Each structure stands twice: as structure tokens, then as C-alpha cells.
Amino acid sequence: MIRWFRKKKVGEPAYRQNSWKGSRGLIEIDRRQRRWARVRPTWNPKMRIAAWAAGLTMGVWAVIVGASHLAPIIEHGLEIREIQIQGVHHVAREEVLQRLALKNGTSLHRISLPFLAERLRTIAWIKEATLERLPLHTLRVTVVERQPAAIARVGSEFLLLDEEGVVLTRLGDQDQPSLPLVIGATQKILLQGESGLRRTVQASIELARTMAHTVEGRVEIDVSDPLNLVASAKGMRFQFGHDALLDQWNRFRMVKAVFKPGTLDGRKRELGEVDLRYDNRVIVRERG
């Protein structure tokens, strides 16, 4: 009796599938597969493009937000706190800093090194300037200065020139006899003259420095006539053509030994003028 009234075990609930059986079911499955094959190529690429676009938008937004927060930190981390200046002797440090014109808080990565170097080269004494960034807060400035090579006399004023004829500074009425003297050039030619006239001045300075190793006394060159330069030293006068000045001077040096001072008929012979304007000729005139 007990066994009769015992509950029967209830099986797990089964779910009904709305699918056809047999051949009709196979037809239904095939129809669904063909419909999915039409839908999948249409929607999958669009979904991928949408996902890429959304991801790219989020990435750009994250970069913008991150940059806006990191920018002040980077600016402060690369702020210029020290400026090292090397190679200056005639130029004051304050003049270099003034020409750089860097504001407080300027970062190393925000400055243009070629632009600043060009600004420094506008200082007459500075021939070349190189700038370097050093971690983390240092800017190094290396300068090559021009060297005095000659004195130019313009009216009653003396100007200090380098070997390229660049005016380094005004000396007023103070001369420097240890340097060659250039006369006959106007201030306009020296400061902003034509390239041909400036080349004449440069060649004259080079000639004067070369002559100083051979002749005694201070060399003085008159450049008032570019086609006929006249140099003088200790009473001797040399006339040069407008081209190849050093070649003309070397021609004189080759025959210089022939014209050593001597006596003729009891009269002392001294050189007064040397004309080098003609090719392959050295015309010498004795001092009268």
C-alpha cells in the first residue's frame, strides 16, 4: 500500500521546438541559412566600420583630454632655467641674452634654434653661433667671434674691421697702429656697400696682412680707386692692379733680393716705388 501512494518522480520540463520534422524541416533549415547568408554580408562590414569609428573617436578624445592635462606638466618639466654662453670675449653676456629675448617660463621644445642663431649673428662681433638643448632645463650657446684685422679711417673717425671687412666697432679718434690701415673707403661702402666694393676691401685687408710679414712698418692701403690700389709702408709705395693681389705681391717677393740697397757712384740706392699692375713685370723706381 505504501508503494502505491508514493509520488512518482517528475522529469525535467521539456521545451517544445517549433520546427518541422522530416523533409519539410530540412526545407525550413535551408531557407533560414539562405536568409542569414544574405543578411551577414550586409551588416557585418557596417558594424565593423561603426566599431572602428567609435574606437577612433574615443582614442582622439582621450589624446586631447590627456594632452590638455599633460601640457602644463611638460611645459614646467622642460622650462629653460639655465643659459650657458661659451666663446664670448668682446661681447657682453647681457647683450647675448638681450638678443635672444627669451621670456621666463619658455620651454626648450618651443624655441627654434636656427632662428635664435640667426638673431645672434646680427651682433657685429659674432661670426657664428650654435645653440643646443641640454636635459632638462639648459640651453647652451656657443659663439665664434670675429677677430680684429685692420683699421679703416673715414674722415677723422677710425673703425675696427675684421678680415671680411665687417665693421666691428667705432673707435672715434683712437687709432690702433699695430693693425694695417685702410683709407679711401666711405662709411657707406663699409656698412652697406656693393658686393664688388666689399670684396675689394676684403682683398686689401688680406694683402696688407700678408705684406706685414715682409716689409717693415705699418702697411697702409688706399682703396679709393678699386682698379689701382696703392699700398705704402715705411716710405715705399706699391701699385697693384684690381685682381689677384697676392699673386702680384708674390711676384715682387721673387725678385726682391735683386733690389737690395747699395751704392752706385757714391750714391745710396733706395727703392721708392714698385709697380705691379702689369703681367709678368715688376717696375721699380728709385727714391729721388
Description of the structure:
The protein has helices at residues 2-5, 23-77, 93-100, 113-120, 187-192, 195-211, 245-255; strands spanning 82-86, 126-134, 138-145, 148-154, 157-162, 167-172, 181-183, 220-222, 229-233, 236-240, 262-264, 267-269, 271-275, 283-286. With 288 residues, it is of the alpha/beta class. It has two domains: 82-145, Roll (Ubiquitin-like (UB roll)), CATH 3.10.20; 148-286, Cell division protein FtsQ/DivIB (Rossmann fold), CATH 3.40.50.11690. The chain has a nine-stranded mixed sheet with strand order 6-5-4-7-8-9-10-13-14. A three-stranded mixed sheet has the order 1-3-2, covered by helices on one side. Keywords: Cell cycle, Cell division, Cell membrane, Membrane, Transmembrane, Transmembrane helix.
Based on the model shown, name its key terms:
alpha/beta; POTRA_FtsQ_type; Rossmann fold; membrane; 7 helices; elongated; POTRA; 288 residues; 2 domains; nine-stranded mixed sheet
Structural class by sheet pairing and helices: alpha/beta
Question: How is the CATH topology of the largest domain named?
Answer: Rossmann fold
Uncertain spans: none
Biggest sheet record: 9 strands, mixed
